[in-house]
Amino acid sequence: MDMNSRFIYTILIAVVVFSGVGIGYVVQHPNMANNNATSTAATGGVYQLTLVITTNNFFNSTQDQPAFYVLQNGSLTSSANIVLPANTLIEVTIVNYDDGNASVPPVYQAVTGTVGNQITVVNNTGVNSTQTSNGINVQGAWTTNNIPAADLAHTFTVTGLNLNVPVVVSSVIQFSFESGAANSYTWQCYAECGSGPSGWGQAMVTPGWMTGTVSVQ
Ligand SMILES: [Cu+2]
Fold first, then answer.
1. Which of 46, 132, 147, 185 is the most buried (most CB within 10 A)?
2. Based on the domain organization, do 186 and 87 belong to the same domain?
3. pTM for this one?
4. String of DSSP letters for 27-46
5. How far is the C-alpha of 140 from the C-alpha of 115, rounded, in Å?
6. β-strands 46-59, 41-43: how paired?
7. Do 45 and 119 share a domain, yes or no?
8. Count: domains in the chain
9. pLDDT tens-digit series, residues 48-63
10. Cα 96 to middle of ligand 1, angstroms
11. Does 22 share its domain with 75?
């Protein structure tokens, strides 16, 4: 192989290697975008918000109560003030670890204010090992505009946006809504999941637990 051929082969190898790096980046990039979808991130006119409902949060060290969190950059952060961009389609995922039912006025069983006035229930994740394979209850995804009272654990309700989303026990819920103009709203869970005889104590009236602010800006 003369020097010219060796030079040309070197150039060709360099082109192939760097092309591979480029292809690798392009292939990897959508995965990175998907990872962002599990946190709160803006992606070209669509804003993705992930809320997580956990149980066994100790309220003033006296009693465990359920709480909404905002999943942001892989961490659970307070839902006391949920900040959203104005005039944007908000794609919401609610991951609900709470397997307990809570009673709710019938009006809050209905889905309102979402795109198509519906939600997608991705799965009922309840698994009961004592029932062997019969207890593995994987239902797949379905869309609905109403949740039976017996299946309802919480709601994510923003009255000022006419938004009401009933949250099924042990489930993942997906929906979209338009954030509209800049404004400040109150969000509230209307399922009686707090303490006390009415179920409206502690978590239900404390920002960052079952109520808070939605700041559209
Ligand atoms: Cu609740």
1. 147
2. yes
3. 0.76
4. HHHHHHHHHHHTS-EEETTE
5. 21
6. antiparallel
7. yes
8. 2
9. 999 999 998 988 877 8
10. 10
11. no
pLDDT higher than threshold 60 for residue 121? yes
- The position carrying tokens 């942001």 is 72
> Does the pLDDT value for residue 88 go beyond 80?
yes
Mean pLDDT of the region 174-187: 97
Q: Are residues 20 and 97 in the same domain?
A: no
- Give distance in angstroms: CA of 135 to centre of ligand 1: 26
Which residues line ion ligand 1, judged by CB < 5 Å?
A: 154, 189, 191, 193, 210
In terms of residue numbers, what domain contains 85? Answer: 38-216
Query: Rounded distance, CA 35 to CA 19, Å?
Result: 25
* Residues 17 and 89 reside in one and the same domain: no
User: What's the CA-to-centroid distance between 56 and ligand 1, angstroms?
Assistant: 13
Distance 98 CA to ligand 1 centre (A): 9
- The answer to whether residue 120 scores a pLDDT higher than 60 is yes
